Amino acid sequence: MIGIDVGSTNIKIVDGKSFKKYPIIKLNEILEKYNDKDVFATGYFRKRFRNHITEITAAIYGVDKEVEVIIDVGGQDTKIINTKTLEFVMNDKCGAGTGLFLQTIAMYLDVPIENFGKYYSKNPLKLNNTCAVFSISEIINYLVNGYSVKDIISSVNYTIAKKIDNMNPFDCDTIALIGGVAENKAFVKYFKEITEKDIYVPKNPQFINAIGARKYGLEYATKNNL
Q1: Is the pTM higher than 0.85?
Q2: Cβ atoms of residues 27 and 43 within 8 Å
Q3: Do residues 86 and 56 make contact, with C-beta atoms less than 8 angstroms apart?
């Protein structure tokens, strides 16, 4: 059984032995190779596949620990899922609080987004704008006033953590962070400090929905004697 998470920017594939990632531009090639009864898909383009489930179901199946809330910080949106009631909220109208916000800043500062997790400060600068476009103006102002790239990226990590905390409407004590942004260690540290809650980051957080799709597929096949 193969699980596929067809996200807004990348395609993640899990087959029980390996983890593979491809840019979304490869979607048609992936469809030709992986669209049969032994494949379950989730994500933005899941309906292009024969078998598919929602990102909410995939996340719940994929997280390997009991938590009250799952926060999936993706490239284009962030989903906050109540695992008990199955209610969820998401911001899909704006890039604030998503990987897109970080990617925009990374491109402007010419710093690989993979390096953002190294930048943490106990007293981060405050960005008043969580809009990626308008925050550039604030960043320029900080650079003009002599602040370092480290200072600025630390503030960006803090800002996205604060934004996501403010998005969460659910009263909870345990939260799992998944998605590509969960690999950013500075963001996770800020989020723990801001929320003062029990935060769990599973191994390979960017692949959790693909893992969940595969687990669901295995369960489905067993129940239906496939």
Answers
A1: yes
A2: no
A3: yes
